[in-house]
Every structure is written in C-alpha cells, then in structure tokens.
Amino acid sequence: MTPDAREEAYGRIMDCAVVGVGDASVDEIDLVNIRQATHLAMARAVRALSLAANFALVDGNDAPALPCRCDTLIDGDAKSVSIAAASIIAKVTRDRLMRALHEEFPGYGWFTNKGYGTEEHLFALNRLGPCRHHRRSFAPVYQMLRPVNQEDSFLTA
Known about the structure:
Elements: H1 3-16, H2 26-32, H3 34-47, E1 55-59, E2 69-73, H4 76-79, H5 81-104, H6 110-113, H7 119-128, H8 139-145
Parallel strand pairs: 1-2
C-alpha cells in the first residue's frame, strides 16, 4: 500500500475497530534487543485495548508473552484481515512518529527513510553523528561510539 492509502485505511480502521498501540523506547531496544522490544510493544498494545483481549493472532512464528492466549501466523498480513489492519496501524503510527522526529532532527532524512539504515541515513550519521533517538546497538552507531583503543573502554577495565 502507498502511504496515502495506508493513511486512508488507518482512518477507516480506527472508526470501526478496537485498537491498542504499544511501543518500546530506544533504550529498551538497546537493553533487550529488537525482537524482545517488539514483543514488549505487542504486550503493551494488547494492554492498551479498551476491551480485554481473549486471544491475539500474531504475524510471524514467534509468539510473544501476551496477557491473553495467542497464536502465530507466518505471512499473517497477507492471510488475516486483523493482522493486516494491525500492520497498517503500526506503519502509520511509525510514519507519523518519524515525521515528528524529522521536524526535530531534519538532517537524518527520517521523513523518507523511516529510520532504516539507508545510504542517506548512514551518510547523515557520518556527517552529524548519532542523536538520542539512535540505537546505540545499531552497528554503525556502535562503531562510531566505541573507543578506538580497547584500553579506553570501560568494558575492559
């Protein structure tokens, strides 16, 4: 779907569905890794629902610890309307957050790259250095921030 089509679908979904949105911070992602932070965000989304969920269907093959029963479905966004709707909500929410970050930190091109390690984003990282919204565990950022000399590292002290 195009971004415009997702925005239109987002409005229609929000008008008729019970929706919960969850997120994980940059610090949480660095602490527990992307997979675990994604699971944390999914659990937060389920807890954010205005009605308690009895069951959740999750895209993929890795079931998170949710406050309800759940099952997984590989390629779920192509097979399940509810997973496809959740994917649209997640992407529109992400796109809106990235536009807001772009307004605050325009040099990174977050409006177009959505935070992915594109050539444009990597060039900006090299030019500007990382900001507080960059994951320290993201390899290019980690390489920039790690000490040149291992003796200067607190990890080897």
